[in-house]
Design the sequence.
């Protein structure tokens, strides 16, 4: 299947490529359950869990009750071993252990910032003989009264926003819903955020007596609305009251502007929405966020106005990265305010986080203040998002895993006819990232 190897034409010497390089490649789904070895039940939806139980021989008439029991152990208690499931019969525990595990994705490394931010490199189970497992990053940002987990929705990103490090990653695949959910499970393991567990010594976690992870933002690697099915399914598990129990209002999906999927997200996931706007004119946004060529600003704004559940209590967050001399003038600030007129909105000004080889600089502090002042006077709170975890490269747009090494392996898979199983190779001619 050599045609499946979609080579991104990003060679700087090739003709007029910048104009067409909105995406490096189209997306592929990972075959469900395509894991090596005994599959884990962690991360599954109720329907998937039921299907696994039936496959193992649990009678249909018992299935619903068994799902409820096991759901509670996995997602409320954080059980790591079937033996802990004391209200489940010994026979069933043995049956489950014979077929399945409660394994989590492996935490390859943990970095803790001076400010308490934690970044985990997480390796997903292998999807086939040549895949040692995709690696993604997720970040935990503690504050005194909340803890935010920034999760990834894809390995890498097919889009090529010019200021984003993740966008330079060559290998991309969608995460399954289970792999998305597992990021919270791993975070709760590491933070001791289960009943009867306690946090690691000296860890910075919220001190208000509540859970350590209270909010989820889909602002890690990937474009969530290129993986909407899995993101919606994952949010269903994250927000399930009998399990992980997050509030849907505290789950925010950030998109670069995949307009046709925005309404669906609101209808099916009822989550909060964030838009990576970053520019107020199409010509500039085309270069910063190239998906704008497909879905220009006017269409994006209409999708925002139509977002299900939108109200003053449930505003859309507009993210705006401050790039020196590019999008940070007074006129830009005024145009931003005008553009958002009539949309219940919050504006997040994000200082640009440079990465090795990036071609932009962050606006000066005075410029950011002036920009923020104009936005504030127009009636918007415009918190400047303090970059967290800078010392461990955990800030927005800096996440980029080791998975590129998989590129060679993906090619091998394709050449040997094994099939990519959702793994893409997009070879970029340029080096240096
Ligand atoms: N793909 C989605 C979500 C992940 S990116 C999206 O684009 O919305 C999360 C946020 O980080 C986005 O607003 C993105 O534009 C921003 N971002 C990316 N690179 C950045 C950088 N180098 N500095 C600051 N913010 C960045
Ligand atoms: Fe992808 Fe978002 Fe980065 Fe753009 S900003 S390349 S959509 S992760």
Sequence:
């Amino acid at each position: 299947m050599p045609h499946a190897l979609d080579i991104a034409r990003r060679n700087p010497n090739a003709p007029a490529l910048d104009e067409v390089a909105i995406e490096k490649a189209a997306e592929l789904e990972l075959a469900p359950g395509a894991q090596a070895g005994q599959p884990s039940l962690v991360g599954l939806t109720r329907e998937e869990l039921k299907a696994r139980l039936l496959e193992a021989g649990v009678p249909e008439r018992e299935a619903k009750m068994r799902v409820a029991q096991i759901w509670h152990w996995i997602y409320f208690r954080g059980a790591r071993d079937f033996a802990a499931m004391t209200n489940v019969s010994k026979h069933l525990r043995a049956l489950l252990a014979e077929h399945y595990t409660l394994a989590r994705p492996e935490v390859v490394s943990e970095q803790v910032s001076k400010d308490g931010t934690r970044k985990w490199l997480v390796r997903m189970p292998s999807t086939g003989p040549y895949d040692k497992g995709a690696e993604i990053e997720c970040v935990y940002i503690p504050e005194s009264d909340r803890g935010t987990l920034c999760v990834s929705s894809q390995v890498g990103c097919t889009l090529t926003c010019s200021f984003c490090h993740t966008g330079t990653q060559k290998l991309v695949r969608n995460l399954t819903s289970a792999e998305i959910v597992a990021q919270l499970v791993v975070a709760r393991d590491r933070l001791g955020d289960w009943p009867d567990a306690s946090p690691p010594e000296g860890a910075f976690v919220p001190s208000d007596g509540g859970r350590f992870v209270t909010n989820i933002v889909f602002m890690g690697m990937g474009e969530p609305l290129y993986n909407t099915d899995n993101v919606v399914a994952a949010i269903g598990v994250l927000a399930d009251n009998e399990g992980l129990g997050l509030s849907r209002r505290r789950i925010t999906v950030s998109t670069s502007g995949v307009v046709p999927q925005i309404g669906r997200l609101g209808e099916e996931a009822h989550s909060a929405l964030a838009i990576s706007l970053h520019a107020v004119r199409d010509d500039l946004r085309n270069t910063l966020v190239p998906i704008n060529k497909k879905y220009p600003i006017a269409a994006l704004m209409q999708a925002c106005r139509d977002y299900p559940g939108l109200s003053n209590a449930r505003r859309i967050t507009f993210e705006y990265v401050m790039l020196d001399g590019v999008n940070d003038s007074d006129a830009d600030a005024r145009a931003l305010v005008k553009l958002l007129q009539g949309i219940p909105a919050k504006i997040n000004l994000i200082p640009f986080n440079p990465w090795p080889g990036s071609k932009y600089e962050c606006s000066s502090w005075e410029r950011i203040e002036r920009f923020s002042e104009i936005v504030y006077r127009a009636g918007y709170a415009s918190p400047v998002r303090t970059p967290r975890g800078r010392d461990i490269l955990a800030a927005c747009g800096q996440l980029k895993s080791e998975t590129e090494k998989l590129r060679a392996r993906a090619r091998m898979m394709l050449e040997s006819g094994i099939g990519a199983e959702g793994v893409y190779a997009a070879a970029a001619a340029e080096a240096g990232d």
Observations:
- Residues 157, 161, 163-164, 219, 223, 254-256, 276, 319, 321, 350, 352-353, 396-397 surround S-adenosyl-L-homocysteine (ligand 1) (CB under 6 Å).
- The two ends are 28 Å apart (CA to CA).
- The first helix runs from residue 17 to 20.
- The chain is about 30% helix and 15% strand.
